[in-house]
Write a structure and sequence with these properties.
The chain has twelve helices and five strands. It is α+β, with helices and mostly antiparallel strands. The chain has a five-stranded mixed β-sheet with strand order 2-1-5-4-3.
Amino acid sequence: RAPRHLSLSPAPSPTASSAVVLMAAPMDLCVDLGPMPEDDHSGRVVVTGLKSLLDSGDFCDVELVVAGQTFRAHRTVLAAASRSFRDMLLRISSGAGDGAELAGATVTDGNMMRLELEDISHPEAMRAMLTCAYGQGDEQPAEYDPGCEDANLDVLRLAQRFHIDQLQEHACRWLTSNLTTENVLQRLAACDEFHLEHVCEQILEQLVSNPEALFALANDAKILSVPRVLQELLIRVLKLVGCGTDVSAAGAQGAAPQGKRAKKAGA
């Protein structure tokens, strides 16, 4: 008998061929991880990172000099917080800003830009501005406290010069906090100097509604140093007692007889 040759190749099975046919077409797979969690972690990372760069001084390219103290910062951060600073950088980058001035601050170009703010005498004001621009990172939010009245005035100068609305809001709210008859005139004078009409309005309303405080203010000789505030107070008090209405009515009544006499004379 001739030997029989055996094939070692496996015979195709119906099951295997069916699997090949099934895997030939792509299949959609659905995995549900649930709703996307609301997390501002990325934003916190950026703020924390910027604050750490400020604290370490890494990559700083601008120096802010106040009362002999130098504060280093980053142009891009200040440009994002202040449109005045951004406009100045655009002028310099276009070649039109060599030796430019930004609201009294001397600017020199180069690797390190230097701004000397000669009319700002309180370094605390610059710290407040940088805190507003950079945030506080991982630190607990601290209450705004410039330390004294004059430092808060410097904060207002910086806020209006660099057009930082949030910084001005901090300073305005401080003007209405811890208000007493001893500091109210100084606060009102600040409102007058920086054209903070809405803050002045609130303080004056508080005074007019408090006769004892108003009387104490009237006996303070320093009120003569702010004549516009004195005028506003007098007008409000007169309106409160109805004098404004009586004067207008009397003026209208007095004008009528004069008009009649003028007609008779003309006739």
